[in-house]
Amino acid sequence: MTYNHPKLLVAIDCLVFGYDIKENNLKVLLFQRKVDPFAGSWSLIGDFVNEDENLSDGAKRVLEKFTGLKNVFLEQLATYGKADRDPGGRVVSILYWSLIKLDDLHRDIANEHGAKWFDLNKLPELVLDHQDMITLGARQLIQNAKTRPIGFELLAEEFTLPQLKQLYDAIYGKIIDDRNFRKKILSTDLLIKTEKKDKSTSKKGAFVYRFDAEKYDYLRNQGYHLDLNV
Amino acid sequence: MTYNHPKLLVAIDCLVFGYDIKENNLKVLLFQRKVDPFAGSWSLIGDFVNEDENLSDGAKRVLEKFTGLKNVFLEQLATYGKADRDPGGRVVSILYWSLIKLDDLHRDIANEHGAKWFDLNKLPELVLDHQDMITLGARQLIQNAKTRPIGFELLAEEFTLPQLKQLYDAIYGKIIDDRNFRKKILSTDLLIKTEKKDKSTSKKGAFVYRFDAEKYDYLRNQGYHLDLNV
DNA sequence: ACAAAAGTGTTGACCGTACACCCATGT
DNA sequence: ACATGGGTGTACGGTCAACACTTTTGT
Question: How many angstroms is C1' of C20 away from CA of B179?
């Protein structure tokens, strides 16, 4: 070892947003802490980082453990490092955030680990500075919804425009105008309309769309910048 | 100690941008690493975090040591944590960025510590992943210039509109239209025009302005969002 | 036939952008 | 008087926001 300096505990916390398409609201995955202090209190899902583990791999490990999911949207958000933030010891915590399509499967897997999905605006008391983390993440979610196609991470691969609009309504916390939303989202030319209709929510049925991720990646590499300021 | 887990070295790196009003360009503060591996190579200023030190205090300590400055713009940007990013050992590094008014005093203080200001687009080879950090910071600078009044961090308290425009030219890397820039920046009503004229750069002289930080803070608390998309 | 959700266009206001000349002053 | 940088206004096109009715189909 070359360096001779104090070492600290380093943890990952994952703020996982899930969108419940039936209830039309955003949820956050929490679990009951197993270790003292505050064992039994609600907390973001997380764990300590291993010595030979990349931070991003640690985040993936935590996420997979509680949701069974790999290869989903997962990005670093911020690092919390007040010396006294955890009475149990000096812990520096790196916050990641993730967006997933919420369905019954994830509820089951979460359950096995004592984790539960909570409505974003009906959260329980949280341990340490985890409420701050969620506040930051919620801001980030709104911000990102305007400039990146993150909405599609929260929906199934195939979706209808009414569903997409409802999701944006939920993220922004307000009702967006139908016609303007369609105009804006279709004008990006990043949605692929299929022949299928989803009749689960109406007699008329709504056309099914898919997001053209390839085209978006291509355009982004050309310097394209999405602006969904609906 | 409650927790029983591996501990890691935690470091702070500070990306310090300075604006050279005479040369009209952006500079970055670098220093020559003192420890192996890579002793003598150019690096962002940084240090290891002490056990009882808040991360933000560590960043302030590093910044003050190399610039003599306190109470300047200093924010966390991202955390770098690949297991093998540093051949000298497992080090998690939290990147902060700072904006300061560059003058001769800072050059002197930097010099005492083997640090030097480099043109943002004439950087030397950098150690570890520090080039990535600067790339990220430069993007952040442009991004923030559009949505927050960070330009004023880089100028003296009193400045002229031509100076401010030159700074934005330097940040964006292109020439902004004079009249549109004035219109936009004055329409925010966040600049206080003084009676003074600065005749150092022209015979006619340019009026001296100050940024109304109090008003900005007040408006921001009311939900106001700056948009300087010049 | 009717209920319930899906789909569709237009207009006015505002904002961004492009562009060229006069002003004040020191030398 | 002239050279140098400081300061100003307008017109066009595009984008955003507000707004209400028709279509489809299962019951």
Answer: 11
Domain span at B39? 9-146
Which of B95, B127, B146 corresponds to the end of one domain? B146
Residues A172 and A60 reside in one and the same domain: no
B32 and B136: one domain?
A: yes
Strand D reaches within 7 A of the B161 CB: yes
Instruction: Identify the CA nearest to A107 among candidates A195, A16, A218.
Output: A16
CB contact under 8 A, A81 and B56: yes
* Confidence bin at B1 (pLDDT 50/70/90): low
Residues B30-88 pLDDT 10s: 999 988 899 999 999 999 999 999 999 999 999 999 999 999 999 999 999 999 999 99
Minimum Cα–Cα distance from B75: chain A residue: A78
Name, in order, each residue with C-beta under 8 angstroms of A126's C-beta and a sequence gap of 6 or more.
Answer: A30, A41, A42, A43, A44, A134
The reply to whether A189 has its C-beta less than 7 Å from any atom of strand D is: no
Nearest CA in chain B to A85: B54
Residue pLDDT, tens place only, A67-104? 999 999 999 999 999 999 999 999 999 999 999 999 87
Name the residue among B3, B53, B83 with its Cβ closest to that of A89: B3
C-alpha pair distances (Å), A206 with each of A141, A175, B162? 27, 19, 55
Active-site residue numbers of A? 112
Mean pLDDT of all residues in A106-123: 90
Cβ atoms B27, B118 nearer than 8 A: yes
A108 Cβ within 7 A of any nucleic strand D atom: no
